[in-house]
């Protein structure tokens, strides 16, 4: 189902033109207009899901198969030496377009980009408390 005011729904449906790398009945993969590196792409489901929490299992599992297919092409054709898959959920995680998407960011030795975080140093007890919060 499309959401009327969602730009990625319109792009995925082909109503707004995009630089499409791949398309099937469930997904479209397009070049990002503000790329981090050469070939930075976005994998979009055609049905609207705002984020990972809303994505049906069937699409979630297919998405990684499509991402892998496109990743293999990128590796071969762009000769990238690495690839980051990045998927943001919610404003605090950096999501700006509220339609599920996976960033596919080819990496090159001299690309000048850094995708990462500052590692914490939790104690074993702190890790255990967090583990229990999640699994209980
Ligand atoms: P996020 O911050 O994870 O929500 O990522 C949104 C991404 O969408 C950004 O990398 C933008 O550069 C990209 N973007 C936004 N609008 C468009 C568009 N019309 N076509 C292609 N990429 C877009
Ligand atoms: Zn949408």
Keywords:
single chain; 136 residues; alpha+beta; HIT family, subunit A; five-stranded antiparallel beta sheet; 5 strands; globular; binds adenosine monophosphate; binds zinc ion
Shape: globular
Rounded to an integer in angstroms, the radius of gyration calculated over CA atoms is 17 Å
Number of helices: 3
- CATH classification class: Alpha Beta
* CATH homology-level superfamily: HIT-like
CATH topology: HIT family, subunit A
Largest sheet: 5 strands, antiparallel
Counted up, domains total 1
Number of strands: 5
Helical content, roughly? 25-40%
Range of strand content? 15-25%
Would you kindly provide a written description of the structure presented here, covering whatever features stand out?
There is one protein chain. The protein has helices spanning 7-13, 57-78, 124-135, and strands at 20-23, 27-31, 41-45, 82-86, 102-107. It has 136 residues and is an alpha+beta fold. It has one domain: HIT family, subunit A, CATH 3.30.428. A five-stranded antiparallel β-sheet has the order 1-2-3-5-4. A hairpin with a 3-residue loop joins strand 1 (20-23) and strand 2 (27-31). The longest helix has 22 residues, at 57-78. It is globular. The site of adenosine monophosphate (AMP) has 12 residues, from loops.
Concise structural overview:
With 136 residues, the protein is of the alpha+beta class. The protein has one domain (7-135): HIT family, subunit A.
